[in-house]
Structure formats: structure tokens, C-alpha cells
Amino acid sequence: MNAILISLLLSLIATALLIIDGNPKSEVKAMLGRSTDRSMIRVRLTELDRGTQGEYEAFRYIQLLYSSIAILCILTFSLLSRKSLVVTIIFSLIVGAIVYLYFDRSLSTLIKKQRSAIDAEFPAIIEMLTLAISAGESPLTAFKRIAENSHGYLSKRFRKVISRVHQGEPFHSALDRMGREVNSPLVRRFIDSLVNAMVRGAPITDVLSRHAQEARDNQRNRILAAAGKAEISMMIPVVFLILPISILFALWPSLTNLNIFAGTSG
For a Cys-Cys bond, which of 83, 105, 118, 134 suits 78, CB 3.0-4.6 Å? Predict the structure, then answer.
């Protein structure tokens, strides 16, 4: 019976590959690329600067491929072990869903790491911009200098802005697109203020100084919050490990003497 089920499973896979004309990998990617993006994968990939159609199709393909491999492995192992068919199917679907959600979760984790790195880089970038523009450079030249002489997520975004400007897009429009793609409140407020100052002809150095101070205050608050969390984490081993052991060492001689006294009295 199990051999028949395995043969049927392999036949279904072969039939699916025959139905897809041409290169199966390309066809599957194309179908996945046309699917409804209900989990906002495309938006998150765009934030990671991987928002092209090819990147989206590749991510969906890898997600589906590993989920299918997990399901097939569980099905094959369970059928060879003579497990119940209903339990096997349910368990394999659960494992496939876990693998599928793992890729989604990994993408969200990458976005959180990038946002944290951008918030950490932002004060230094603002300081460099303030110094460059205060020295007499134009905003575009200052952005280009920072993009060429620094490394990080914001520097990559600056290089993308410079590339768009060279392709003919207005500088303020390229900056606005960058603010929407980064999805950071600090960066978005800074870009909006900078674009408004450039369009209206307001002093840019005042905008930069104000946002530099705001960035320093935000960084200090982030450090204090991280220190508070670390302090709470350090209390866990103290309260649940070191303190009970210390109490045990303090009470053990007294308990031993009481036992000896009780035995002598008896």
C-alpha cells in the first residue's frame, strides 16, 4: 500500500512537470510572480533594495521549493515507516507551512536589522552632511561625497539617488523616492524637511542642524533603552541562579548542625 502511494506521489510530480512547457523553473517563477502578494513580500523586498520582479519571483520560488521539499521528505519518511496516512498528510502540511513561514519571518528579521542599522548610521551621516554643506558645498555634491567615502545602508541609498539624478531625475524627486523606500521615520522627516527647504529656498544648514540634534537625542534614547533591557536581562541569572545558590550555601551549615543536633538528642 505504501509503495503504491509513493508511486502515485512521484507520478503526480512527473505529470506536473510534463504539464509545464519549456523550462519548469522559469514557468513556476512566472506563475508565482503573477500570484497575489497578500503578505506584502514585494513591499518588504523593495525596502531591502531588492524590489525587482526577478527578485520577487526568486524569493517566492525558493520559499515554495523548500516547503515542497519538506512536505515530500515527511511524506516519504512517514509512508516508509508505515505511519497513518491521515496523520502523515496533516504532519507534512504543518511542516511545509512552518518552512514557508520561516522564510517570511527571515525577511521580516532582515528588515528589522536594516532599520536598526539605518537609525544607527543616521546621526553620523547628518553630521557629515552638515559639515559639507556648511563648508559651501551644494546638497548634491555633499550627497555624492558621502556616497563615495562612506559605507552602509544609507550610503547605498545615497548612491542610488546620485544614479537617478545622473539619469535625468530631479534631485528633490530622487530624495523623495529614497525617503519612501527607506521606511524610517527619522529619515523620512529629514528628507521631507530637506526637500521643502530646497524647493522654497530656505536655509538648509538650519534644517540640518535641527535634525542632527534630533538624531543625537534619538540615538541617546535608543542606547538608554538598550541598557535598560540589558539590565533586566542581567537580573534573571542573579535572581534565579546566583541568589538561590547563595541562600543555599548560607543555610546549609545551619541545617547540617540542626540535623546533627536532632540526631544526638534522639
Answer: 83
CATH 1.20.81 residue ranges for the chain: 116-220
Over residues 157-207, the pLDDT tens digits come to: 888 888 888 898 888 888 888 888 888 888 888 888 888 888 887 777 777
* CATH no. for 116-220: 1.20.81
Query: Can you give 183-212 as a three-state secondary structure string?
Result: CCHHHHHHHHHHHHHHHHCCCHHHHHHHHH
Tell me how many degrees the CA angle 28-30-33 measures, rounded to the nearest 5.
110
Binned at pLDDT 50, 70 and 90, residue 114 comes out as confident
Contact between residue 26 and residue 34 where contact means Cβ atoms under 8 Å apart? no
More confident residue, 111 or 27: 111
pTM above 0.70, yes or no: no
Q: How far apart are CA 18 and CA 5, in angstroms?
A: 20
Q: Are 49 and 156 in contact (CB under 8 A)?
A: yes
Q: What are phi and psi of 241, to 5 degrees?
A: -125, -60
* Separation CA 87–CA 94 (nearest Å): 11
**Long-range pairs of 67-71 with CB within 8 A, sequence gap ≥ 24:** 67/96, 67/97, 67/99, 67/100, 68/96, 70/95, 70/96, 70/98, 70/99, 71/95, 71/96
Q: CA-to-CA distance for 183 and 221, rounded, in angstroms?
A: 20
Determine the Cα–Cα distance for residues 142 and 129; give it in Å rounded to an integer.
Answer: 6
